[in-house]
């Protein structure tokens, strides 16, 4: 997709702002209410006053994580699929509070804040979506509320921003070797630069406006589903007489069909999440979690950003969350 010139891009943004001003002001009003309850940037000492129940307490409506995940959806959605990460934050409240202090520390840059050991709390690892949302809430002039790395890359590509060269200029190494935090910091830099934004002049209104403009102008698309086999083999010809009833039987079918499913090489099978590491047809390393039914992924409380694919016997999700990994149903490759 061709990029706009700097002039036409900003003109289009101004037109977009006129149509969405009320929405933006409403989102900021709710954000200001959050800051009154949790003013940790101006008063980091108040972080020590957080009790485990104030971090996560599903019996009430005003706990910290309720604001981050639900009440501030208009500041950027995160979809984590279960409450396990919130329960883990409550159970590790001292560790969580130390990470909050990192998130509001003015001496640290965005990369350093994201690269802090959030993964030490279960559910906060992977692409660190929850951590990024928290960090954004206390640093809205320094980053956009775009929490998935592949979405930031998508927007940068649409604007023809050369972030590969930017990685060399900023960090002295190739983009693919950057940490999660460095990628986020760099991609935010190039997107702000595309709109000629200066940090000293940027506000939460600007970042929300720019983010909504990017999502509506260049909506990210999910990867197309894998093409079904032209010639489908009966289940018995694959050495199985019955449909899978447990995860190990799905693993067996995957081991027979992995090339047809688009993964010529299996690097690792393991008991830890995610179950499998593979190389796809584009020679990229990807991760897979095996399930009997696609919905089992949610029921088991796996983080949605924790793997690239769910390989299951049957996809029983009518409308999968767009934040879910891509689902591959082995049943679709079998002649029943």
Question: Would you kindly provide a brief summary of this structure?
Answer:
The chain contains 13 helices and seven strands.
Task: Indicate the topology.
Elements: H1 6-37, H2 52-55, H3 64-71, H4 84-91, H5 93-104, H6 110-114, H7 129-138, H8 149-158, H9 163-171, H10 180-194, H11 204-217, E1 233-234, H12 247-257, E2 265-269, E3 276-279, E4 285-293, H13 296-299, E5 309-314, E6 326-329, E7 334-335
Parallel strand pairs: 1-7, 4-5, 5-6
Antiparallel strand pairs: 2-3, 3-4
Helix pairs in contact: 1-11, 8-10, 9-10
How would you characterize this protein structure?
The protein is of the alpha/beta class and 336 residues long. The protein has two domains: 6-217, no CATH class; 233-335, no CATH class. 42% of the residues lie in helices and 10% in strands. It has helices at residues 6-37, 52-55, 64-71, 84-91, 93-104, 110-114, 129-138, 149-158, 163-171, 180-194, 204-217, 247-257, 296-299; strands spanning 233-234, 265-269, 276-279, 285-293, 309-314, 326-329, 334-335. The strands form two sheets. It has a five-stranded mixed β-sheet, covered by helices on one side. It has a two-stranded parallel ribbon with strand order 1-7. A hairpin with a 6-residue loop joins strand 2 (265-269) and strand 3. The radius of gyration is 22 Å and the shape is globular.
């Amino acid at each position: 997709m061709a990029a706009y010139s700097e002039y036409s891009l900003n003109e289009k943004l101004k037109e977009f702002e006129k149509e969405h001003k009320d929405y933006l002001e409403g989102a900021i009003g709710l954000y200001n209410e959050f800051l009154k309850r949790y003013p940790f940037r101006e008063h980091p000492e108040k972080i020590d006053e957080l009790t485990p129940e104030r971090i996560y307490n599903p019996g009430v409506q005003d706990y910290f994580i309720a604001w981050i995940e639900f009440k501030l959806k208009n500041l950027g959605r995160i979809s984590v699929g279960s409450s396990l990460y919130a329960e883990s934050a409550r159970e590790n409240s001292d560790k969580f509070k130390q990470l909050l202090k990192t998130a509001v520390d003015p001496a640290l840059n965005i990369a350093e804040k994201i690269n802090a050991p959030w993964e030490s709390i279960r559910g906060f690892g992977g692409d660190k979506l929850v951590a990024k949302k928290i960090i954004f809430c206390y640093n809205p002039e320094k980053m956009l509320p775009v929490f998935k790395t592949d979405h930031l890359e998508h927007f940068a590509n649409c604007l023809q921003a050369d972030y590969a060269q930017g990685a060399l200029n900023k960090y002295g190494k190739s983009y693919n070797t950057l940490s999660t935090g460095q990628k986020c910091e760099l991609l935010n830099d190039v997107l702000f630069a595309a709109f000629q934004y200066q940090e000293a002049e940027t506000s939460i209104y600007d970042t929300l406006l720019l983010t909504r403009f990017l999502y509506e102008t260049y909506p990210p698309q999910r990867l197309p589903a894998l093409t079904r086999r032209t010639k489908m083999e009966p289940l018995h010809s694959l050495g199985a007489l019955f449909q899978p009833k447990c995860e190990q039987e799905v693993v067996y079918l995957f081991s027979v069909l992995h090339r047809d499913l688009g993964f010529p090489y299996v690097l690792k099978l393991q008991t830890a999440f995610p179950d499998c590491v593979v190389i796809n047809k584009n020679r990229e390393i990807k991760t897979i979690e095996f399930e009997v039914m696609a919905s089992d992924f949610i029921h088991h409380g796996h983080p949605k950003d924790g793997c690239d694919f769910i390989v299951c016997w049957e996809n029983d999700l009518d409308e999968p969350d767009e934040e879910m990994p891509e689902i591959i149903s082995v049943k679709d490759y079998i002649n029943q």
